[in-house]
């Protein structure tokens, strides 16, 4: 069941991804506006996986197949959109799209996470509070000492370990966050967020450097802090907010394709503007165009996913029943 406070966070993270990609292009880099908001542009990926672990904690069903079906239809739409956008581009090579490029690294990396998710849920329910925390710290240590994120296909083992840590953190927060006094966790979260903002500004002002990596331990703590704040909001269930949250995957996958088109058509007209103003203009137009595109595709693609999943469940149940009946018959014949 969707929780509006979580769906609001999910949607804002999708906007953060747009801001990250728009503000990070060479034409706009660096801008003070990007520096100020860069901490919030770093955290969407860790927050997405924390949300997955949090919301899946009590889910006993394996959602791996459903996730594969979802990826399949979004992948086909991605190929179609990119082909239409580049239909007049002489340098366009369709085969270069097949791996999805850097935009699909997260979705490819999440496939094994969805399949092992129920196993992680069992671990989280079996371990004590500190045992699970110790296990997460060990996994993170292994990742930071031996691995790195691979932003291409196929995903690396490091991707799996890092996302597993995020999933388990979501599990831990679902089970134990309420044990922490609310004023302690909220004050820590607000102080940490403000500190990150100040540090980013000071670093940029002194050495012109922006740390926008989404995988550092400081970013993971920032993601937990932001998640904690939103998770303690008192928001009633709201259909519109839930709808916005349902658009987050479409925002994540298709905004950059639309942004590239916008950049081509507008660059000659506004490239002399201040970088901060350009960032605002490009971010607003990209967000609006992605929102319109997402509204157009969300209902038909959800219908396809829903019906395909029903078909899969029917076929699976049919085959399972046939095999079970056959095994029962063999057992009866052996007993006779």
UniProtKB/TrEMBL annotation:
Q: What Pfam families does the entry give? A: Acyl_transf_3 (PF01757)
Domain of life, source organism? Bacteria
Q: Does the keyword Transmembrane helix apply?
A: yes
* Gene Ontology MF terms in the entry: acyltransferase activity, transferring groups other than amino-acyl groups
Keywords of the record, alphabetical order, are: Membrane, Transmembrane, Transmembrane helix
Acyltransferase domain sequence ranges: 5-297
User: Transmembrane ranges?
Assistant: 7-25, 31-53, 65-85, 105-123, 130-147, 153-174, 186-209, 215-233, 240-266, 278-305
Q: Identify this protein by name.
A: Acyltransferase 3 domain-containing protein
Taxonomic source organism? Spiroplasma turonicum
